[in-house]
């Protein structure tokens, strides 16, 4: 009797694991990278949510049973609601948690000296500069787009870059536009006294 029960429970778990990914809903016309987790946020009566000052209608939310890593790999996650926030306000990726910075040598996030989060310089199409708080100007998402990278140092000619308001970085020396999905920002010490918020440049992996 006990054996049967155990077997039954065992198969129920296996089955739900197999079926879940197939049943997992998603938001139409919304890439996973454009979503944010709405866990712990109370929905309004009509099923809409407010996230970081952005109103997300119910038809732009869905329940997910997975999360996606930077390289698109899906990993199972406890069932949670996500909303397509990046279709409503420009998103930008932060490499680490706010109290951390990316370490270029260790290739990982480390605790940073606690001081104000650096502000960000952005440019309009006609190159008008403005300095702003990244948490207000954008919807920040914490995600590393690659494992191997270099942090761009705006003081070096070779690294000089421009961040447009639409979240695209223009790398001047390479004459290359880099979409907000393909880089993240990290606090970075330019010198002993000056902390900036710098984009990383993903290093192409060699498949040779
Ligand atoms: C989603 O809901 C909003 C607000 O309720 C509505 O304006 C919009 O037309 C809906 N979009 C679709 C595709 O149903
Ligand atoms: C972002 O803005 C820049 C400058 O106007 C433009 O060249 C680039 O194509 C835009 N990128 C996207 C993804 O809209
Ligand atoms: C640049 O664009 C901004 C708004 O995007 C506008 O207010 C400003 O007048 C423009 N400057 C020039 C020199 O065209
Ligand atoms: C540190 O870098 C900033 C920005 O480039 C510069 O304004 C400042 O003078 C530098 N400070 C030192 C001590 O080199």
Automatic annotation (TrEMBL):
Residues 1-24 form the signal peptide. The keyword Zinc does not apply. It is found in: Cell membrane. Transmembrane segments: none annotated. Its main location: membrane. The keyword Membrane applies. Pfam families: Methuselah_N. SUPFAM superfamilies: Methuselah ectodomain. GO terms for molecular function: G protein-coupled peptide receptor activity. InterPro entries: Methusela_ecto_dom_1, Methusela_ecto_dom_2, Methuselah_N_dom, Methuselah_N_sf, Mth_GPCR. Keywords: Cell membrane, Disulfide bond, G-protein coupled receptor, Glycoprotein, Membrane, Receptor, Signal, Transducer, Transmembrane, Transmembrane helix. One of its GO terms (cellular component) is plasma membrane. It is a multi-pass membrane protein. Residues 30-202 form the Methuselah N-terminal domain. Belongs to the G-protein coupled receptor 2 family. Mth subfamily. This is (Mediterranean fruit fly) hypothetical protein. The lineage of its organism: Eukaryota, Metazoa, Ecdysozoa, Arthropoda, Hexapoda.
